[in-house]
Amino acid sequence: MTTPGLHIRNVTVGVDGSPVLTNVSLRVERGEIVAVLGPSGSGKSTLLRVVAGLVAASTGSVHIDGADISGIPTHRRGVGLVFQNNQLFPHLDVAGNVGYGLRIARMPAAQRRARVMELLALVNMSGHADRDVATLSGGEAARVALARSLATTPRILLLDEPLSGLDHDLRYALADDLRRVIRAAGSTALLVTHDPVEAERIADRVVRLAELSSGAQ
Amino acid sequence: MARSLAGFGVVTTTHAPYRRASRRLVVVPGVFVAVFTVWPALATLRRGFDITAIATEGGLRGTVWFTTWQAVVSTVLTLAVGLPITWILSRHEFIGRRFVRALTLVPFVLPTLVVGLAFRAVLPADLRTGVIPLVVAHVFLNVAVVVRIVGARWESQPRSFDEAAATLGAGPVTRFRTVTWPMLRGSVGATAGLVFMYCFTTYGAARVLAGPSRPVTETEIYRFAVLAGDMRAASALAIAQVVLVGVVLAVTARGVTHASVPIRPLALRTAPHARRFGVAIGAVIVGAVFVLPIVGLVSRSLRVGDGFSLAAWRGAFGGAGALDVGPSLTASLTTAVVAAALSILIGSLVAFVQVHAASRAARGVATACEVIPVVVSAVVVGLGFLLAFRNGPFDWRGRWWLLPVAHAVVALPLVSRTMTASMRQIPADLRNAASTLGASPLRVLASVDVSLLRRPIGAATTLAALVSLGEFGASSLLSRRGNETLTMAIGRLLGRPGDLVQAQAFVASVVLAALCLVLVTFVDFTTAGERR
Hints:
The complex is a heterodimer of chains A (217) and B (532). Helix content of chain A is 35%, strand content 24%. Chain A has helices at residues 44-52, 94-98, 100-104, 109-122, 138-151, 168-185, 196-202, 209-212; strands at residues 6-15, 18-28, 33-37, 59-64, 67-68, 79-82, 156-160, 189-193, 205-208. Chain A has a 5-stranded parallel sheet with strand order 6-7-8-3-9, sandwiched between helices. In chain A, strands 2-1-4-5 form a 4-stranded antiparallel sheet, with helices on one face. The two termini of chain A are 31 Å apart. Chain B has helices at 16-25, 27-47, 52-56, 58-91, 97-109, 112-122, 131-155, 159-167, 172-200, 204-209, 217-228, 231-259, 273-301, 311-318, 325-356, 360-375, 378-388, 402-424, 428-436, 441-452, 454-470, 473-478, 486-494, 499-520, and strands spanning 303-304, 307-308. In chain B, β1 (303-304) and β2 (307-308) form a beta hairpin. Helices cover 75% and strands 1% of the residues of chain B.
């Protein structure tokens, strides 16, 4: 009976009485990349935060590979989130950021180092391991943030406007890169964005947030 | 290490006319600090040159040792108490948060002498003097430093770093250890250094609470200089004190620069249900603890002998008993106004030169003007004045302006740091724009700098007045008959027996505390203090 992948069921989130998300349902198959489109302020980020466990849903549930994870705290969910503006730890260098999750998972240092190198190669950032994150360009920071989230091989990878804040040309070049990297990692991914072109370039399937609400009369 | 929080750009401050002017302007603070800080310090050094007195005389060595360890214990306990309070106040939103936060800052605004008296009023008789009340008072006084410095950093730490760590598998403890702590560490270190320095140079609280068997260096300097007339011993202790404070400051200087990175607070989040109860209880306890001493102060002033009585108050305002509040209040206010005016003038010049000077030498002089008075404690300033201004053309003993000048020296670092931080935030191009629109350099100063700095100038001036009102260290060495300020009056009354006299010391404290609390409502703490 288990359904592989991510299943969001009738999730409603209210903040101070006003609903941010109403009865949202979505299914993402294992290995699939789905993009959710919506204007800013429509609750896209909140949807990702519910899946990551950073925001609690008022009603509804989130299932991964058939199991209800609604009660599990963020750090035990095995869900990766690439934040808007990346949120790289300013006190750690590039390798420190990418290896952060591995360190927490108690991976031995040598193995960790190898895995960090592997990921940096995957995102075309080999040779930047020792850099201070404050010196990274927007595109580089986005790549490092992606590598950091992929390092622990999360069951679901969430991406919150991963390319916002980048200029146009770089943006679409990086979109193709992003797709390649997520594919190569074999991840199941859910991406939210306001840019239809970006969504099409990265995802296998694009849905509008407004269409996900059922029975929201 | 040029590791900084991404996104904070450096504002350039180049404006040619200011650059040129600062070369000449630096002379004013330079001369002021040379005459009123460096020279007194040298006079002290000459007298106390035989610093071996400390090594050979057991009493002096014991004093320095006790002062050091009580300061270490006070600092550790202040952090142990202050960090959880800071966590409650800067990571959670609840009804009354601002009020509780303001309460924790009250003791820091009150004169240490008054806080010492407040503790004497509320503590049981057998705990009124000794190490324990002294350390407790230090914790009470300095929790505000933790709440302000560490709190500002903690509030501005985006929650998303925490969240990012959570999505990577870090539990609450790991998140604190690997994300929160590394970002707070610098500010905690800076706070520890500052608190240690405050506790090491404790004077007002120690005069009231330490007791005769537990003198600290500052009270011993006072005792040797004023009561025993032994200037050699007083000077030797003063030198030891300055050296130790200098070392502590040098060690923590890195953390201080770290902590002074521009900070912007973020929206707070309501505590999750499970935690809400604990946070509420904590907030209530914090509120109660910080109100208690104030209540004790007032109630003690209303007690003469065994019963409730207004006698002390009536006497203080009617000239009966040992205290006449009227003239003392006038003396305190006059001194505060002159001291505040002097220190804002000198402090602004120091800040101006630090921000605008191109020449290394000019900036160096300005920085020295800011740093030297930090290293020299208030009691040492008083001692230096006694030793430097006593003969020849510099015989300024008994001049009324000597006290406000001493207060201005004590307040100078606070004022110039507040002004420097604010001045740096004005983009140079604003001034350049004014110039291209035809404004002369003076016009630029008036229409751009002064108008934008009105609030910080007001805040810094008020802070200086607050420092002067509560200043006791320099005051008690320079005090003489006539022109007695409130803190001097309290100091005098404390040494005298009698229920009414004692109650009147508390009357003077209540008046002083009220004055400070009224003044502080004028300080816009969003621009001042934040970057101390």
